[in-house]
Amino acid sequence: MSHDPVPLPGIAKDDLVLRFWGVRGSTPVSGPQYAEFGGSTPCLEVRCGERLFVIDAGSGLYNFGQNHRADLPREVDLLFSHLHLDHTAGLPFFKPAVLDCDRTIHTYCGNLGGESAGAALDRLFAPPLFPVTLNDLRCTFTHHGFEAGEPLVFEDGTRVDTILLNHPQGSVGYRFDHNGRRLCIISDIEHRDPWPDPALAEFVSGADLMVYDGMFTDCEYPTCRGWGHSTWQKGVELAEAAGVKALAIIHLHPAHSDTMLHAMEADLKAAMPSAFIAREHQSVVVGAEQVDLPDALGPASGVVRRIRVA
Questions:
Q1: Known InterPro entries for this protein (predicted)?
Q2: In DSSP terms, which residues pair with 158 in a beta bridge?
């Protein structure tokens, strides 16, 4: 498949860049108490230089589409962690899918025993659950299945490594290596004994940035055991064991307000100074050494944050 260049203003062409379009877990939320960290469910944009990937199609995919209509390639690679509703609900509201007849969206799903997401999405987006099917949209969907643990190797030579995560029905973690930098996306996951998991620690080893599921507090987790999510403390333990340089916490609990998340972030930074709680619309140049922004970023800032790793 061919991919057009997708330059991002203000970013060097060889940078590894991550942008958070949705960081909330389980269900979207709105209101003034969520103004800073945001209320959209998971959607991440990863750029390996001029190569674009989208991770998950939660409600944050809507804003991703609104912001990138002009600079998207004709073929978009959408990598699902898994297919739970908070990771798929934004798909039919993705403007490039709804309006662009020359667009092809390639989906990749690795937690269904090698099957693609096609059959599941066709069941979800169809009457009586949804008024139209994905085939009614103007774009073309092409669905690819793989087994988590297999690398994804694309026609231009780009490689994305994968790992199966502990989550109900499974979830897939992704690792991007580009220009000497490493980014790992580890969500949705529930920690288990022994922890850190040796295979996972090896997978994220030496990452410049690891994105990790920190949905619950230590107090909340015991009553939610088995739900498939973790805590920021377990993210720090994994990061320290694997030599991860910086940590971003996502899949934020829908009941956790800005005030609560600020308090959690203070504790997080005390444990790992290069760690932070992700904010919707926040961008990160992975592995950059200087800090360009204060920690508090509004959801509409659209600015780049460089994470100190030295």
A1: Metallo-B-lactamas, RibonucZ/Hydroxyglut_hydro
A2: none
Closest CA to 173 of 240, 223, 230, 133: 230
Judge residue 199's burial from the number of C-beta atoms within 10 Å of its C-beta, 0-12 exposed, 13-18 middle, 19 or more buried: exposed
Q: How far does CA 126 lie from the centroid of its chain?
A: 26
Instruction: Give the pLDDT band of residue 1 (cuts 50, 70, 90).
Output: very low
CATH classification of the domain holding 105:
3.60.15.10
Per residue in 280-301, pLDDT (tens digit) is 999 999 987 644 444 434 444 4
pLDDT digits (tens, 9 = 90+) for 88-109: 999 999 998 888 888 999 999 9
Q: Which residues contact 155 (CB under 8 A, 6 or more apart)?
A: 1, 2
Structure tokens at 113: 């025993």
Mean pLDDT lowest for which of 5-19, 44-58, 167-181?
5-19
Residue 260: how many other CB atoms lie within 10 Å: 15
DSSP state of 305: E
Strand intervals (E) in 159-245: 159-165, 171-178, 181-186, 209-213
- pLDDT of 261 higher than 80: yes
Task: Provide the sign of the torsion angle of the four alpha carbons 257, 244, 154, 151, taken in this order.
Answer: negative
Instruction: State yes or no: cis peptide before 193, omega within 30 of 0.
Output: no
- Residue 3 in domain: no
- pLDDT (0 to 100) of residue 304: 52
Residue 191 within any structural domain of the chain: yes
**123 part of a folded domain:** yes
- Asked whether residue 11 is domain-assigned, the answer is no
**Do residues 58 and 87 make contact, with C-beta atoms less than 8 angstroms apart?**
yes
DSSP 8-state assignment for residue 42: P
Confidence of residue 307 (pLDDT cuts 50, 70, 90): low
Give CA–CA dist 82/250, Å, rounded. 15
What is the total count of domains within the chain?
1
Question: How are beta strands 171-178 and 159-165 bridged, if at all?
Answer: antiparallel
Question: What is the rounded CA–CA span in Å between residue 274 and residue 286?
Answer: 12
